[in-house]
Amino acid sequence: MNVITISETAVDKIKAMLAEEEAPNLFLRVGVKAGGCSGFSYGMGFDDDQNDTDEVMELHGLKVVVDAESKKYLYGVEIDYQDSGMGGGFTIHNPNAVASCGCGQSFKHKEEEGHAEKCDDKVEV
């Protein structure tokens, strides 16, 4: 079983964004770090540096990498992309989160507190 799932809609959007980068070795890295207004915050970005301890997945033809430390917070996470008239954005559903911030990018894990910080609603994903 994969650590995370990503909808085909989200994969299509990510592949389009990767194509704009014009760097053939890039892949999607998804992670978690302590911080954010609820204790932990998500990180999603392109990378080309893979470590031996990374979890590597192939989802709908997209290479996705999760670092070993983030893996325990991301089991069961579902990433989707919602297109709306005002733009659109990625959504993250984490079944392990017992609370999340209004910004949607920060969460409190069911087993750990993390490190909560002031919410500034300016989260880059």
Helix-strand category:
alpha+beta
Q: How many strands, what sense, and barrel or not for the largest sheet?
A: 6 strands, mixed
User: Could you please say which CATH topology applies here?
Assistant: Hypothetical Protein Aq_1857, Chain: A
Number of helices: 2
The tally of domains stands at 1
Elements, N to C (H/E): EHEEEEHEEEE
What is the CATH class name?
A: Mainly Beta
Q: Report the radius of gyration as a whole number of Å.
A: 14 Å
The chain-level mean pLDDT equals: 80
* Spatial order of strands in the largest sheet: 4-5-2-3-9-8
CATH superfamily: HesB-like domain
Looking at the overall shape, the CATH architecture is Sandwich
Ends distance:
25 Å
As a percent range, the share of strand residues is 35-45%
What is the β-strand count?
A: 9
Principal-axis shape equals: globular
Stretches where pLDDT falls below 50 for ≥5 residues?
Answer: 119-125
Helix content: 10-25%
In short:
With 125 residues, the chain is of the alpha+beta class. The chain contains 2 helices and 9 strands; from the N terminus they run E-H-E-E-E-E-H-E-E-E-E. Mean pLDDT is 80; it is low at 119-125.
